[in-house]
Design a protein that fits this description.
The chain is built from 23 helices and 13 strands. It is of the alpha+beta class. The chain folds into 3 domains: 159 residues, Butyryl-CoA Dehydrogenase, subunit A, domain 3, CATH 1.20.140; 78 residues, Arc Repressor Mutant, subunit A (Orthogonal Bundle), CATH 1.10.10; 260 residues, no CATH class. The strands form 4 sheets. A 5-stranded mixed β-sheet has the order 5-12-13-9-8, sandwiched between helices. Strands 1, 4, 6 and 7 form a 4-stranded mixed β-sheet that branches. Strands 2-3 form a two-stranded antiparallel sheet. A hairpin with a 2-residue loop joins β10 and β11.
Length: 533
């Protein structure tokens, strides 16, 4: 019989059974306990069996058997419970004991009950509400309230007998050292969701193995009450997935060892040096920097032009050569706030000596309309990095629209001021502005520059493969199985549209002196391009 049907049947038997018990028990308290025992026994049977043809007869059979147990047990304190179930008698609840330590432990164990049981126990034992009042407030039958109280007592006894062991996270919580998003942002600030140490450690607790709320709480040494709300919120936005009653993290949490970081640094430094030096040689020797289709307020400053072209070509060339076994759609999460993305976090460790950190790095980032695309990276060499990158990301549509209009007509003073504030233009006088970012005027120039990068990739394809394969194997081997497909998708971009690769290309040229640190006036416009879509 279904639960709702069983509850409906028993609702009609509550008063007759209680009347039966009141006539035969010594006290009203005993009668209430006995009637509850009768109803619970019948309820269990109705849930498990569909062959109870005469419910009335079965109820009175159970009632008489329970009454016999009551008479046999009259000298005991455990009223209405048969001898074989004595082991299930719960420990005392808060109002039944004066021992402060026991009361404290009981209150802690109440937090480990299911949400419904916890609320009913608090309402009954702490707030001292009648069962009928609780039933009305919860919109459930009184029999269901009695059932939850009975089951809660058993759970509390089991909890009192268990020695709970806190995990290492109570004493040594992790801290996410960095975050990343691959894909489109929604309305919610995803980074803000993970500023709380509690949220970070909940996710880390279920990084490798699915766990219940209570198991997570034991790991963290906190009350499950605090964990349950956070797990529900994280599941709602796609950061945890539920497997039965257990949760498992559903984004990338990387925990690299010093050895893996060492391998990463060596791999990227070698790949960056190989590509960047070859690209620098090609760009400075082939005359493309003098093309009339390459425009910029700093057109005569080749160093400034290279700060934009080297990162862009490193990220965007050779698309036809890139491995494409797994699509973004297969691994990205469609979130409640409208975003579709892959979120990942890193748990920090002590980096090996000589490790190259990506200080204040953002990107590659790009936005486009039907006519043009704006592309950029941000780095430690850029001015007002975070504001600049985020403003361009958030105001991309306006930027692109103003660029198209400005090529045909003068903009308003406010519009020029808006562009200048973001470092996109500089005003030459009241009526004339120059775009400070690098502009590729034609598709032919865009394709010619990308072809240079593609030829370099083809030339050194075997060297890149030898660098890439051992690193990818180590990275995937360092992750739990359920995270590997997401990471496999991301490894398809290694040495392509890969921020770390772009960083090492730039870093190599800066360290060797081929790229000079830009002038202060250039830093807002650094590494930003406009080109045909």
């Amino acid at each position: 019989m279904r639960k709702t049907e069983a509850e409906a049947v028993l609702e009609s038997w509550m008063k007759p059974v209680l009347g039966f018990a009141l006539k035969r028990c010594r006290t009203a308290e005993d009668a209430e306990d006995l009637s509850q025992e009768i109803i619970l026994r019948v309820y269990r049977t109705l849930l498990q069996r569909d062959d109870v043809e005469d419910v009335e007869r079965y109820v009175w059979t159970v009632a008489h058997n329970a009454l016999c147990n009551y008479y046999r047990s009259a000298s005991r304190n455990t009223v209405g419970i048969p001898l074989e179930e004595v082991g299930e008698i719960p420990a005392a609840l808060p109002e039944e004991t004066d021992d402060a330590e026991t009361v404290d432990r009981l209150k802690k164990e109440i937090a480990y009950l299911s949400e419904t049981q916890r609320k009913i126990v608090v309402a009954y034992y702490i707030d001292r509400k009648k069962q009928e009042q609780i039933a009305r407030e919860f919109g459930i039958p009184v029999g269901t309230v009695k059932w939850h109280l009975f089951e809660a007592k058993k759970e509390l006894k089991r909890g009192m007998e268990k020695m709970r062991e806190n995990g290492d996270l109570k004493y040594n919580p992790v801290k996410f050292a960095g975050y990343g998003i691959n894909g489109s942002l929604g309305e919610k600030d995803l980074y803000s969701m993970f500023r709380s140490p509690l949220v970070q450690n909940i996710c880390y607790s279920v990084r490798n193995t699915a766990k219940t709320v209570n198991e997570i709480a034991d790991d963290l040494g906190v009350s499950p009450v605090y964990v349950s709300g956070e797990t529900e919120h994280l599941e709602e936005y796609g950061f945890l997935k539920k497997q039965g009653e257990k949760y498992l993290v559903d984004f990338l949490i990387e925990e690299p060892t010093p050895e893996l970081l060492q391998l990463e640094c060596e791999t990227y430094k070698a790949a960056g040096a190989l590509f960047a030096n070859a690209l620098y040689g090609e760009l400075t020797a082939c005359g493309v920097l003098d093309s009339p289709a390459l425009t910029c307020a700093w057109k005569n400053d080749r160093n400034f032009l290279l700060w934009a072209l080297v990162p862009w070509i490193a990220a965007c060339s050779g698309e036809a050569l890139r491995e494409k076994k797994i699509s973004f759609k297969e691994v990205a999460t469609v979130r409640k706030d409208g975003g579709t993305n892959i979120f990942h976090a890193t748990v920090g460790c002590d980096a090996p000596e000589g490790y190259e950190f990506m200080n204040q790095w953002f990107g590659p980032l790009w936005n486009a309309d039907n006519r043009h695309k704006i592309w950029q990276v941000g780095s430690e060499w850029s001015a007002n990095l975070q504001d600049r990158v985020m403003n361009i990301q958030g105001d991309a549509a306006r930027t692109l629209a103003l660029y198209d209009r400005e090529r045909k007509e003068k903009l308003s003073p406010d519009e020029y001021a808006w562009l200048a504030e973001r470092g996109l233009i500089r005003m030459m006088d009241e009526d004339r502005a120059e775009w400070q970012i690098v502009i590729l005027e034609t598709k032919e120039l865009r394709d010619e520059l990308l072809a240079i990068g593609s030829r370099i990739r083809e030339k050194y394809a075997e060297e890149f493969r030898k660098l890439r394969d051992p690193y990818v194997k180590a990275v995937l081997g360092d992750l739990p199985v359920h995270m590997r497909k997401i990471k496999e998708f991301e490894t398809q971009f290694i040495f392509f549209s890969d921020g770390r690769f772009v960083f090492h290309c730039v870093k190599n040229l800066v360290n060797s002196g081929k790229l000079k640190v830009p002038e202060e006036a250039q830093k807002k416009a650094l590494s930003t391009l406009m080109m045909p879509a």
